[in-house]
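Hi R.,

Here's the chain you asked about this morning:
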Amino acid sequence: MEGDRRRPEGRSDPFWNSVASFGIEEIFALPDWIGEGKTATAPVGRVPSSMDVQTELAALAERVGDCRGCRLCEARNSIVFGGGNPSAGILLIGEGPGASEDERGIPFVGKAGQLLDRILESIGLDRESVYITNIVKCRPPNNRTPSSDEVAACWWILEEQIRIMEPGVIVTLGAPASRTIIGTSDGIGRLRGSVHRFGDIPVLPTYHPAALLRTQALKRPVWEDMKLLRTLLKKLGLPGKGEP
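And the predicted structure, written out as tokens:
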């Protein structure tokens, strides 16, 4: 019988920290053992209340605390956890905070964020009808692309955010976020324009707003992606009506 190999990287709970402290890289566990150790979870298909989501996200942010999980903590000013309406059912995921975001602790507030606001407005959305976060929560120096180990260290936070919010759709902004969520090495040019999946959740990749600031020709494909998103949201009945 084939077992399940689970790695401790990116975990924040005491068990995995203890395992990692002994230099153990991975653990082999038979499926039966894993099943016995699972904690109870909410039934599939539940609709989380706005209060539940807010409470769980606040508890997660407290767990993250002053995270020292990777080298990005060394130069950051703020951990940029996320912002918007976590009960709306629409989750936007970018690459990482920039200088303005690092200073204010809020995602997408610089020039790229201002453009993102206009893009959302073009299909009737705003900051109160989506939730926005990044694959890493601390600014990479000089706005470089996060390294694979930095993404891995931060992954448990994003994974928990998705679990808590149970979004109806995920929009990934740029290649790093799209590759991370979809699990591929394909470029954003190949990924955009169609709907992918993260588990049961539809994922729509598109170009990062910062790329549009550099290359005006990308505005047309992004508008095509937004029309696809608008059609998908109408089909799903999103955004939800939860209070931000």
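The two ends are 47 Å apart (CA to CA).

Let me know if you need anything else.
M.
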